[in-house]
Design goal:
heterotrimer; A alpha/beta (about 525); B mainly alpha (about 325); C mainly alpha (about 450); A: about 525 residues; alpha/beta; six-stranded mixed sheet; 20 strands; B: about 325 residues
Chain lengths: ~525, ~325, ~450
């Protein structure tokens, strides 16, 4: 045990269990952090990676308890300290940044005050000196105009700036150890890259020992020095980052790495007759102001989009949150009113059709939503969920035929047929998304709008669902409009890609063309933030 | 912000018209002036002459909406709707069935009401917050569970028992203060202490329990975890982070009641003999004086709508995230 | 004997049938079943539910009304012996009255303290020697069997022990089948059995002792206070349920429509409930009740007996409370519907071209049921409390109908007597407190189980 004193943090055989049932959550986790190095803890949701970080800080929620092991910081076991001594460790020696900066910052205190609070707790700085130090920190983490940002409230800052405030808060007292729990997950890709760059840079300049917790292999690839893969409360593999990516030992690690995009293989463009054509489609939401709530302006959510999707083809619509891509999907489904332009489906204009006349097209255009948990009525069985479209669109089946079809569909999406009697809450996210696919397929559509269908899923499940979608396309010749913010899934999936920014389509073309020879600056920025395995 | 307030005030107009129409329907259409006369006169004295005389004396002898007999504008103005309902908008409440001027009554009686209601309101919130904070400090312990049980028990006791019990113990058994009565000057506090005390104690159960839930809701927010990770102590987290955030729903939730404080409390005022608007209303109900009830409904509605507007304004003041538009 | 069905009786039995069917329907849904299981997995849930059911049981027994056939008057017997006409008592009796063994028929002259043998007030009377004295007269229905007043407490004790034995015997018969049936159930039924045992023993004790003493004394009119308190149960329970039930259809229909259709429907509904909630509730209720009272007074022919008049007023009160209090539930349901309309499954239904009616019925209504349920149990206790206040103000239950509010109203100055008369208030207090406390505790559990906010909080922890 001689290495203790030189290491900033050593976690040995950490065990955590549920208080109520005694069910183990962490089963003996051990690792070391080194100064100036980033140690990445990777795993999917429920693997116990966040619990590890909270346990190390002794910040576990009441339902969880530490049942064994030790966390040494500079040779001192944190689990032996009193709570008040521990308070002097938190923020001073070990600092932490969290996933969703918006909710992790106190909404009624200004950004500056919150950073100042850390300093006030651990240093003697007060008054003007305190303020100056905060402004200096803001400048260091790259917040523009730090003087005035001091008195901004969190909601007045952008997502990236909020995360920078969090980092400033964490670094205020110059800790030796930084625990970053999914620091970039809630951010758009371009911002994500900037924040990671900042963390990398600070690790170097301050000789920080960083524990980076993430589910994103791309982040690990671009940022970490050492990797540990967590699976069901255990570290199953631990290695240097180069070693890990080129020579993973475990099948599970292999799967995680395989989910990274391969930017050398693309879908070949199949020149087919167009199924859906959009021409200058606009969706505006009014902005009302003044005493009489007159419409003074419009939010141009979708501002003149023209594109065309062929039969049996996948068109990927890429953009960051708020770019209007989901609104476009809803407009095609006639769920949002369009302000202008035409939507042609198989040559017929279908925009703004009344409910009755829209019905025949409802059969042909279907949708899969992002959140599998909210896209199914919790009070209906899976069978009833799938049957809904068949009933309302009058496919002319009787009850037994419907039941047969439901079972066929469930088998087609690789679920047991007897699932039809069960209720949605009994299933995992991946299974539910398969049910959602079965529901869409039930009415034999020609086009399915997939609105971020995999972004709520873990990496390994994501790949399976995407694979299923592709199989179904080959089998039924269905077209997909695939709405996503994640460029990494495009190469395997899409024939065409359109990049959306602020309601406009800034660039479109074949997948290969967009991903290898982007023209527009925004596309380039998006691409730059995609992690790759090949470099 | 200014435009917003103007808009809210404009929106209040249709609501007040609605209130006005509703009360008009209730008091004159569902229940005709004849019915009212009969119940006011009492069964024994009901003759067509007596009814007509009563209606004339109280101004109910006109048609409801349109007076065909009157000339020009009189067709509209010489109606019950105009004289009894529309005039409320001009704060002209007319006379009660017993002949007193309602406007004068209201303006003299609202001050005693306020003298009881305002201290009850302020002390009540303060006590509830303190009690709730105390309980939250012992969250998830046996003490916390028993405190919640106590709150629920306190909630389950009728308000009447608080008043009766308070009078019996404090005033009758211990003889600390007079049982009831009111005095505008001098020793007014002697008469106010007991009603305020009763009002505060009666509110602790529901108030403290509600605030405790709000505190705990805030305690589960992410920013509390951030504060812990900074190294802040539990006490400072409670006071510096949880309390300011929980105060937003607490304060904005009670603002709507502030204008209504003028209306006083029916029960407290009648038990303690305080000559406020609460006992005024109660007397009106008991003597079936519809003119007063109608006026009080109108005043109450105005105060409530005022409360709603104040609530919205208080949001912008208390919560930096809210901007009115 | 002639059964008599008051309107409120009919409604209450309809209500019970509807509730049973509703819960039976809910049982099919596994999510709901899981949540109910959570409510009943706590001992507190079991105990409070048992207490509430006891109250409901008393209310139901008290809703089986009939009029007793009068014995043919002796004088008239010779003349009309041929006619088989039977005359019925104007006094309406219920099954509960029979089960209480005539507790309500043992009147005294005026106040008497609990377990007292003599009246509370002195009276002029003649003693054995025929001289006029002023003393506390003996009660007519208390301690008649005693030869020596000194024996009172030993006698009470002895009778208590005997009745306890009987109570335990009945408990054994009552609980044994439940035990056989439910012993393997995961829920803490033993808590419910304990509560049932206490209720049964207490009931047996009250009925048997009340034959010899006034357990809670008598009030000013000489009526047994315990009897009055028990009669108040029906009023309280019925008011709490009927008023909510009348409000539900209004609130749910308007709330769901506003949240789903938005636009002008939403504006209209919002206008309606803002207008209604801006009127001080108590004034609106008072005015409505007074107006209805005027109507009753002017149309006395509609009601053949006094009980029917009181019943009409009671129903009107329920109706008025229901109509004036839908706004808060409506607001909640509107907000929830707005939220649900944005969820994937409603969007998916739109994408399938499902009709509005079907979306409302299949997707939206079932998912706001938890709000209705929470409101139902929460409002119940609030309404029971409100009844007391309204009766005090004079716009509540008809004074001829037993209710806790009327008891309090009649007894409010009794504490200032010397010595204070405390038992009338205590009777009303304890019966009301037990019901409201049980309902409040139970509603807390229901809310914890059904409110998605607390559900998510639990799963996070």
């Amino acid at each position: 045990m001689s290495g203790h004193d030189t290491l900033p943090m050593r976690v040995t055989d950490l065990e955590v269990a549920l208080v109520e049932t005694g069910e183990p959550i962490l089963k003996g986790v051990s690792f070391d952090l080194h100064p100036g190095k980033i140690f990445a803890l990777v795993g999917e949701s429920g693997s116990g990676k966040s619990v590890t970080s909270l346990a190390a800080m002794r910040l576990l929620p009441d339902a969880l308890a530490i049942t064994g092991g030790a966390v040494h910081v500079d040779g001192q076991d944190l689990f032996e300290l009193s709570e008040s001594t521990m308070q002097r460790v938190r923020g001073r020696r070990v600092a932490m940044i969290f996933q969703n900066a918006m909710s992790a910052l106190n909404p009624v205190q200004s950004a500056g005050q919150q950073v100042a609070e850390t300093l006030r707790l651990h240093t003697r700085l007060r008054g003007e000196a305190l303020r100056e130090r905060v402004v200096q920190l803001f400048a260091e983490v790259g917040i523009p105009d730090p003087q005035s940002r001091y008195s901004f409230y969190p909601h007045q800052l952008s997502g990236g700036q909020q995360q920078r405030v969090m980092i400033a808060m964490a670094l205020a007292c110059e800790p030796d150890i930084l625990i970053a729990d999914e620091p970039t997950t809630a951010l758009d890709v371009t911002i994500q890259e900037q924040v990671l760059e900042l963390i990398r840079q600070l690790t170097q300049t301050r000789k920080l020992a960083v524990l980076l917790i993430t589910h994103d292999m791309g982040v690990v690839r671009n940022t970490a020095d050492e990797v540990a893969v967590m699976y069901r409360g255990e570290i199953i593999e631990q290695a240097g980052v180069e070693d890990f990516f080129h020579n993973p030992q475990q099948a599970y690690s292999r799967r995680l790495i395989d989910a990274l995009p391969d930017l050398t293989q693309f879908q070949t463009v199949a020149a087919e007759s167009p199924l859906l054509q959009l021409d200058e489609v606009k969706v505006y939401f009014p902005i009302r102001k003044g005493v009489l709530q007159r419409v003074v302006d419009y939010t141009r959510a979708v501002d003149g989009i023209s594109l065309s999707i062929g039969r049996g083809e996948t068109y990927a619509l890429v953009g960051e949150s708020g770019s209007g891509k989901s609104t476009l999907g809803r407009a095609i489904l006639n769920l949002d009113e369009i302000a202008g332009g035409t939507i042609l489906f198989a040559g017929q204009a279908i925009q703004s059709l009344p409910r009755k006349q829209m019905l025949p097209y409802r059969k042909k255009i279907q949708v899969i939503f992002q959140n599998p948990f909210s896209s199914m009525n919790p009070r209906l069985t899976v069978g009833e969920v799938i049957a809904e479209g068949m009933v309302s669109l009058g496919l002319g089946l009787n009850a037994t035929q419907r039941q047969e079809r439901i079972e066929q569909l469930l088998e087609r999406v690789q679920l047991p047929a007897d699932y039809s009697q069960r209720y949605p809450h009994e299933f995992s996210g991946g299974e539910l998304q398969r049910v959602a696919i079965a529901r869409a397929l039930a009415v034999e559509p020609e086009l399915i709008i997939c609105d971020e269908p995999t972004s709520a899923l873990d990496v390994s499940i994501r790949a399976e669902v995407l694979e299923l979608l592709q199989q179904l396309q080959r089998e039924f010749g269905v077209s997909y409009l695939f709405i996503t913010h994640d460029l990494s899934i495009i190469p395997t999936l899409a024939h065409h890609v359109g990049v959306m920014q602020e309601g406009k389509l800034v660039e479109q073309g074949s997948a290969e063309q967009i991903l290898t020879r982007p023209q527009h600056a925004y596309t380039k920025a998006l691409l730059a933030s995609v992690p790759r395995i090949d470099n | 912000m200014f435009a917003y307030i103007v808009r809210r005030l404009l929106y209040a107009i249709p609501i007040l018209i609605g209130v006005n129409l509703l009360t008009f329907m209730l008091f004159f259409v569902v229940n005709s002036p004849d019915d009212m006369a009969v119940s006011q006169l009492g069964e024994k004295y009901v003759t067509p002459q007596a009814i007509a005389a009563w209606k004339e004396k109280n101004g109910y002898d006109k048609p409801l909406f349109i007076n065909g007999a009157a000339e020009g504008a009189g067709a509209i103005t010489e109606t019950i709707f105009f004289t009894k309902s529309l005039k409320l908008f001009a704060f002209d409440f007319g006379r009660s069935e017993s002949g007193r001027d309602i406007t004068t009554d209201v303006s003299t009686r609202m001050w005693p009401s306020l003298a009881v209601a305002l201290p009850t309101f302020i002390v009540g919130i303060w006590v509830n917050i303190c009690v709730a904070l105390l309980v939250v400090m012992f969250h998830a312990t046996r003490l916390d569970r028993w405190a919640v049980f106590l709150f629920v028990s306190l909630m389950s006791i009728s308000y009447l028992f608080y008043i009766i019990g308070g009078q019996f113990l404090v005033a009758k058994t211990w003889k600390l203060v007079p049982i009831s009565g009111f005095q505008a000057e001098g020793q007014a506090w002697k008469f106010l202490i007991l009603p305020v005390l009763v009002g505060v104690v009666a509110g602790i159960g529901s108030g403290a329990r509600w605030y405790r839930t709000l505190f705990l809701e805030e305690a589960n927010q992410d920013y509390v975890r951030t504060a812990r990770a900074k190294g802040a102590s539990e006490i400072s987290i409670l006071f510096r982070h949880i309390l300011p955030n929980a105060l937003i729903p607490i304060l904005t939730g009670v603002v709507v009641l502030i204008p209504s404080l003028f209306m006083g409390s029916l029960l407290i005022e009648s038990f303690f003999g305080i000559p406020g608007l609460g006992s005024y209303m109660l007397d009106a109900i008991k003597s079936q004086d519809f003119a007063i009830v109608r006026s009080m409904v109108f005043i109450g509605s105005i105060l409530y709508i005022l409360g709603l507007i104040l609530t919205d304004i208080s949001y912008t003041w208390a919560d930096p995230r809210v901007r009115l538009s | 004997m002639k059964p008599l069905l008051l309107w409120s009786d009919a409604l209450v039995f309809l209500l019970v049938i509807a509730l049973v069917l509703f819960f039976y329907q809910l049982r099919r849904d596994p999510l709901t079943r899981e949540r109910w299981a959570q409510v009943f997995s706590s001992r507190l849930g079991m105990v409070t539910f048992t207490v509430i059911l006891t109250y409901v049981g008393i209310a139901l027994l008290d809703s089986l009304h009939f009029r007793k056939a009068l014995d043919a008057p002796v004088a008239a017997a010779d003349q009309q012996s041929v006619t088989a006409e039977v005359f019925y008592d104007n006094q309406v009796t219920s099954v509960l009255d029979i089960m209480l063994g005539g507790m309500g028929e043992r009147f005294e002259r005026t106040y008497s303290a609990p377990f007292a043998l003599q009246s509370f007030e002195k009276q002029n009377m003649k003693n054995a020697q025929g001289r006029a004295i002023r003393d506390f007269p003996p009660l007519e229905h208390a301690g008649q069997h005693l030869t020596d007043p000194q024996d009172k407490w030993p006698d009470v004790l002895a009778k208590t022990l005997v009745s306890l034995l009987w109570g335990l015997l009945i408990c054994a018969v009552w609980i044994a089948p439940q035990w056989l049936w439910l012993r393997r159930s995961p829920h803490p039924w033993y808590a419910s059995w304990c509560a049932q045992a206490v209720v049964i023993c207490l009931g047996v004790w009250m009925v048997s002792i009340s034959r010899y003493y006034h357990i809670l004394g008598t009030d000013q009119g000489g009526t047994d206070v315990l009897y009055q308190s028990l009669k108040g149960v029906r009023t309280g329970v019925l008011l709490g349920t009927l008023a909510t039930l009348i409000m539900l259809p209004i609130a749910v229909t308007l709330g769901v429509m506003a949240g789903y259709f938005k636009g002008w429907v939403d504006d209209l509904v919002q206008y309606l409930y803002t207008t209604l909630s801006s009127i001080p509730g108590i004034l609106l209720i008072a005015a409505s009740v007074l107006l209805f009272q005027v109507y009753i007074d002017l149309n006395p022919d509609f009601f053949s007996i006094g009980m029917e008049k009181a019943d009409a007023r009671f129903l009107a009160l329920c109706f008025i409370l229901g109509v004036t209090s839908w706004s808060s539930l409506c607001r909640l349901i509107r907000a929830e519907t707005l939220k649900i309309s944005q969820l994937g499954y409603v969007q998916a239904a739109h994408a399938f071209g499902v009709s509005h009616a079907r979306i409302l019925g299949r997707h939206i209504l079932p998912n706001v049921v938890h709000i209705i349920l929470i409101t139902f149990v929460l409002d119940f206790s609030a309404l029971v409390l409100a009844e007391a206040v309204l009766s005090y103000i004079g716009v509540g239950i008809d004074p001829s109908m037993g209710s806790w509010g009327n008891m309090i109203n009649g007894a409010r100055s009794e504490l200032s007597r010397q010595p204070p008369v405390w038992w009338t208030l205590s009777g009303a207090f304890f019966f009301m407190f037990a019901l409201v406390l049980a309902a409040n505790l139970f509603s807390d559990l229901v809310r914890d189980a059904f409110d998605p906010r607390s559900v998510s909080r639990r799963s996070q922890a």
